[in-house]
Write a structure and sequence with these properties.
The chain is an alpha/beta fold. The chain contains 21 helices and 35 strands. A 5-stranded parallel β-sheet has the order 29-33-28-34-35. Strands 2-17-19-18 form a 4-stranded mixed β-sheet. Strand 26, helix 11 and strand 27 (431-434) form a beta-alpha-beta unit. The chain is elongated and about 95 Å long.
């Protein structure tokens, strides 16, 4: 897509399972490749940056095999045969894309590997500095040459003899990745020379939490670094990387920032799973910055949750320790009650783009007042200038409708620009994000994940034959929303069970079928495998079967995630019997669509006669009344009107009138 148009969003709530951390994934992939033994790594990030690393390692002769657990986008677990510190392939040309977490540590490792290698990337990578790392390597005798502009990739590496007798003196105020690269590579030379390796930092060390990640992971691979403050690092001689066996990659704490911020800006609660209070990633400290802005933060073993607790406050913070997550705060500043200042963020200028300049340019498009310095950014939202919000959202949060609607945000081929600015939609202002595919670098499914907690949902529940399916599909068509017929999923499950000879009261058997059901919807048709079963699932037998399997807790659990996955931008209309109570409890609009049993029986009778089928009015009425009773009494998600649902009685309405009534209610709740 050239762009994605995000609608005005009123709230955000729900749970997001984070992808694996990019910083951890690329570090452990390289460490496992350099180690002795076989390492199995789970929850590896599936994205452009990790793909770059995997391809490079394969070209260098490392044995890589995907493990059985797969995400929709690719393998998330890998079995890596370590090379014991010596890459088997001694000559290779490597393309590193725009992955700083790949090119920098690989440059250091290859410089100490006794081979001839070239490393290049996309044009932006050739503008990102690497001179301090190269200088550090050359201090110990490595032969690393520039083939383009001095100080920047592309690079050419030749075999060389390394001398560790003197400390490496390294600047730390441009990128902590230079220190990380040296730390990870130096044990390779120490194995051969029998010498300890020492690194002395000559300036302030930025992004210290990322260095902590490196030290933590090196220790898991049996190499311990002695640290004297943040100025001197010593790697004793004789240490070798040894496989820890199995490793689990934490969820990406930088990516968590967008959803935690959505919990503050959109009311919440929003929970991110995959990181928690014991995370080794410094970016979890972003949650503390949110707390200072007025978020209520809950810390769990493997989750963090955020929701708004009051007015969103302006801030003035030194963000040297969380440079990536700090970008999210710049957009949060649009919602604050005054001028916010982000300090000590000079590293932004040497990232995927000059992020200080890019952030200032795009924030100004929205009408914010922005000031920028060499290593700081200040944001004053329109609200701080004395302009009042024009309306209140259902959550009581100000809807900042004075921001310019449908502004097109340029993303500079920078994944974090796209993800940060998507949050502007939570100001109640529609926005356009150009080149949304740039999120593939670290979070290919980002916009689906955001939709899962923020895309508008109209949940329409009601008894059988109330017309909710017809009405819901027409409302979805009018709004341009996606449509979910949850009843079709239960009918499909019942049909599949009957065809497979699985008893409808066999909860485990039916649930297993539901979990792997090869179902798809296209052009108002329903398919099982490649068979069009639209009519087959509407038979009385399939309908009765659907009611039977719908009371089984295991079946409902198996279908729950499938139903929630239909929530996408620009929005969703979902109909069923528990859409508002269970599947989408935080739906923007909830409607209970009903009609008298007599009216519903008459409608069903008319439908059957029009299809040329025989029907008995009395039997239909009795069947509907029995089904109503069964649905209302079932232990799992009984049919009921939610307290916050609007009652729409269609007994005296035609289809057009019912659609108009629902549209009127949806308009009030938007």
């Amino acid at each position: 897509m050239e762009f994605i148009h995000l609608p005005a969003l009123a709230q955000a709530s729900g749970t997001v399972r984070l992808p694996g951390s990019k910083s951890i994934s690329n570090r452990v992939l390289l460490l496992a490749a350099l180690a002795e033994g076989t390492t199995e790594i789970h929850d590896v990030l599936v994205a452009d940056d990790t793909q770059v690393m995997l391809v490079a390692l394969q070209k260098l002769g490392i044995g890589l095999n995907p493990c059985p657990d797969m995400a929709a986008t690719g393998p998330t677990a890998w079995r890596i045969e370590g090379c014991g510190g010596a890459f088997p392939v001694k000559a290779a040309d490597l393309f590193m894309g725009n992955a700083g977490t790949a090119i920098r540590p690989l440059t250091a490792a290859l410089a100490l590997s006794g081979g001839h290698y070239t490393l290049s990337g996309v044009p932006r990578m050739h503008e990102r500095p690497i001179g301090d790392l190269v200088d550090g390597l050359c201090q110990i005798g490595a032969d690393v040459r520039y083939t383009g502009q001095p100080g920047f990739p592309p690079l050419e590496i030749h075999p060389a003899t390394v001398d560790l007798s003197r400390p490496i003196r390294l600047r730390g105020d441009v990128s902590s990745q230079f220190l990380t690269a040296l730390l990870m590579a130096l044990p390779l030379s120490g194995q051969a020379s029998g010498q300890a390796a020492t690194i002395e930092i000559t300036t302030e060390l930025i992004s210290q939490p990322y260095v902590e990640i490196t030290l933590n992971l090196m220790a898991r691979f049996s190499v311990v670094v002695q640290r004297e403050g943040w100025q001197r690092f010593v790697i004793p001689a004789g240490q070798r990387y040894r496989s820890p066996g199995v490793l689990q990659v934490e969820g990406d704490a930088s990516s968590a920032s967008y959803f935690l911020a959505a919990g503050l800006l959109g009311g919440g609660p929003v929970r991110v799973e995959g990181v928690g209070k014991h995370s080794i990633q410094g970016d979890v400290r972003f949650a503390k910055a949110l707390a200072a802005m007025g978020a209520e933060i809950t810390w769990g073993e493997h989750f963090i949750e955020a929701k708004r607790a009051g007015q969103i406050k302006a801030f003035d913070l030194d963000l040297n320790h969380i440079p990536d997550a700090a970008m999210t705060l710049a957009v949060c500043a649009l919602f604050a009650d005054g001028r916010s200042v982000l300090r000590n963020i000079g590293s932004w200028r040497v990232k995927e783009t000059d992020r200080i300049a890019a952030m200032a340019t795009e924030l100004k498009k929205l009408g914010a007042t922005v000031e920028a310095g060499e290593d700081w950014l200040a944001v004053s939202p329109l609200r701080a200038a004395g302009l009042s919000p024009s309306l209140e959202s259902p959550l009581g949060a100000p809807a900042f409708t004075h921001y310019l609607p449908n502004v097109a945000i340029d993303t500079y081929d920078d994944h974090r620009m796209a993800m940060c600015f998507s949050l502007v939609a939570l100001a109640g202002v529609p926005i356009i994000i150009n080149d949304p595919a740039c999120v593939r670098k670290t979070f290919p499914d980002y916009f689906d994940a955001l939709a899962s907690i923020a895309a508008p949902v109209i949940a329409i529940d009601g008894p059988s034959a109330s017309g909710k399916g017809t009405v819901a599909s027409l409302v979805a068509e009018k709004l341009g929303y996606h449509y979910l017929d949850s009843g079709a999923l239960y009918r499909l499950t019942a049909l599949a069970a009957m065809r497979a000879g699985v008893a409808l009261d066999d909860e485990a058997g039916v649930a297993a079928l539901a979990a792997s059901l090869p179902a798809r919807f296209a052009h108002a048709r329903v398919f099982l495998h490649d068979e069009d079963v639209t009519d087959a699932i509407r038979t009385e037998e399939a309908s009765a079967g659907a009611s039977r399997v719908a009371v089984l807790a295991g079946v409902r659990a198996a279908l729950l995630a499938r139903q929630r996955a239909w929530r996408k931008f620009p929005g969703l209309v979902a109909d069923g019997r528990d859409m508002g109570s269970v599947v989408f409890p935080h739906a923007n609009t909830k409607i209970f669509l009903t009609a008298s049993a007599q009216a519903r029986a008459e409608r069903r009778y008319k439908q059957l006669i029009e299809k040329g089928l025989t029907a008995n009015m009395h039997a239909l009425l009795q069947d509907l009344q029995a089904r109503d009773e069964r649905d209302a009494q079932r232990s799992e998600a009984p049919l009921r009107q939610c307290k916050d649902a609007h009652w729409v009685d269609t007994t005296q309405m035609g289809i057009a009138e019912a659609v108009a009534a629902v549209m009127a209610v949806a308009g009030e709740g938007s």
